[in-house]
TrEMBL record:
A Pfam family assignment: Sigma70_r2
UniProt keyword annotations, A-Z: Sigma factor, Transcription, Transcription regulation
Entry keyword Nucleotide-binding: no
Protein name as catalogued: ECF RNA polymerase sigma factor SigK
InterPro entries, alphabetized: RNA_pol_sigma-70-like, RNA_pol_sigma-70_dom, RNA_pol_sigma70_r2, RNA_pol_sigma70_r4_t2, RNA_pol_sigma_r2, RNA_pol_sigma_r3/r4-like, WH-like_DNA-bd_sf
Listed NCBIfam families: PRK09646.1, sigma70-ECF
Gene3D superfamilies: 1.10.1740.10, Winged helix-like DNA-binding domain superfamily/Winged helix DNA-binding domain (1.10.10.10)
Domain RNA polymerase sigma-70 region: 36-103
Family that this chain belongs to: Belongs to the sigma-70 factor family. ECF subfamily.
Sequence ranges assigned to domain RNA polymerase sigma factor 70 region 4 type in this UniProt record: 135-187
Keyword 4Fe-4S applies: no
Gene coding for it: sigK
Length: 195
């Protein structure tokens, strides 16, 4: 059976002796944790709210702090400070961690946006390069025989299979395959592509 919570004797208030309550929490006493929660949650929430300035996040972080107090109760040492100071330290640390985490996420998003950002100059340069490549392809296609040019155009610009190209041009399939292979070799050489 649980023993009653020890009362703190002070001129200001008569509440539980928090150091004794924490000792009971360390032993897994849920009733003691309820008393600890009632005593500290308002202070923890207020401190976190001052750091985060966002009510929803502050509620979430305050809950995390209270859970940490439950889990870390056995680590509390009264010679290091009061229970209130211990809880406030944990709350402040958690709130600052949340701010840093949010700032790091914002920094990552900004860095990604900066990497993805293209200036108008980059767009113009890319358009010029694409146009020059297109002109070179047209010039190189002009160097192919009529059958090679038609076969390449049908296969690569209209997406036809070798068999469909052969049917469209009314040419035997082996001839189409040979002409396309030869045409692609000539295109590669004309464009200066190395393999």
């Amino acid at each position: 059976m649980n023993e009653p919570l020890p009362l703190r004797r002070s001129a200001r208030s008569a509440g539980p002796d928090l150091a004794a309550v924490v000792q009971r929490v360390a032993r897994g006493d849920k009733e003691a944790f309820s008393a600890l929660y009632d005593a500290l949650a308002p202070m923890v929430f207020g401190l976190v709210l001052r750091v985060l300035r966002d009510r929803a996040q502050s509620e979430e972080v305050a809950q995390e702090v209270m859970i940490e107090l439950w889990r870390q109760a056995a680590r509390y040492r009264s010679d290091a400070g009061s229970v209130t100071t211990w809880a406030a330290t944990i709350a402040h640390r958690r709130a600052v961690d949340r701010v840093r985490s949010a700032q790091a996420a914002t920094d990552r998003e900004h860095a990604q946006a900066a990497r993805d950002h293209r200036t108008p100059y980059d767009d113009v340069a890319e358009q010029v390069e694409t146009r020059l490549d297109s002109e070179q392809v047209r010039r190189c296609l002009g160097n192919l025989t009529e059958l090679q040019r038609q076969a390449v155009n049908l296969a690569y610009y209209r997406g036809l299979t070798y068999r469909e190209v052969a049917e469209t041009l009314r040419t035997p399939l082996p001839t189409i395959k040979t002409r396309m292979r030869d045409g692609l070799i000539r295109l590669r050489d004309c464009m200066g592509v190395t393999t």
